[in-house]
Amino acid sequence: MRVAERFNLFVVEDAAQAIGATYTFSDGRTAQAGTMGHIGCTSFFPSKNLGCFGDGGALMTQDDALAALLQQMANHGQKVKYYHDTVGINSRLDTLQAAVLRVKLPHLNDFARRRQAVAAAYDAAFAAVPGVRIPVRAAESTHVFHQYTLLLDGVDRAAFQAELQSRGIPTMVYYPVPLHLQKAYARPDYPVGTFPVAEYLAQNVVSLPIHTEMEADEIQYIINTLHQILTQLPLA
Ligand SMILES: Cc1ncc(COP(=O)(O)O)c(C=O)c1O
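Above are the sequence and the pyridoxal-5'-phosphate SMILES. Below is the predicted complex in C-alpha cell form.
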C-alpha cells in the first residue's frame, strides 16, 4: 500500500483463497484479507472457503464512490434501470447464490478453524519427515488453508500421487504451469528457465485433501498412508 501511495496506484487484493484470514500490521492493527487494498475480491466457487452453489463472487471496498461505480459496472453500467451511464457487464450475483451465502457466511470463522485443525494435524505429522516440506507460515498472518500444499524434495511427484490415488487419496497440483509458460502469456523473451523458483514449485508442489467435513479417522488414514509410501518411493 505504501508503494501504491507513492506511485499513485490502485491495489486490487485477490482474497479468493484467503477470505477469513487476518494480517497484523507492525503497529498492531489487524485487518481481514480483502480489506487492505482499494478493492478486495473473492470467489464463491463451491470449492472455496466460502462457497455458493455455483459461480459467484464479490468485491469489497471501503470507498462509497468506488462501491457505487462497481455496482453500476456489474449491472450493465446502469444506475437507473435502462439508463446506461457507462459500458458495464452482467456480473450480478444470483439471488439463489446470495441465499446460500447468507446462511453460510456466519460460519466462515468456524470453516477456517476446521481447516486449520486439519492443517495442524498434517504439520505435526509431516514436519520431520524426509522428502516433504510443510507450508511455511508468515508470523503476521493467519492462514485459512484453502489448500494444504507440501513441497516434495527429491520425491517423484507422479509416483507419489499415483500411490496415494491407488489407496483412495486424491491429490492435486496447484498449479502445474507458471504464468510465463502459459500459452496465453508466452513471450519469446520468457523461455523455460526465466523464473526458476516458480518453475521448481510448479514441478514439486502437491496438495493434500483438506476441507471442513474431514473426520479424524480420515486424517489419520492419510497421515499413515503418506508415511508409508514415502519410505517406499523411488527418489526423483
Ligand atoms: C486466488 C484466486 N483468484 C481468483 C480465482 C477465480 O475465481 P472465479 O473462477 O470464481 O472467478 C480463483 C479461483 O480459482 C483463485 O483461486
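Helices lie at 2-7, 64-73, 95-104, 108-126, 157-166, 196-204, 216-232.
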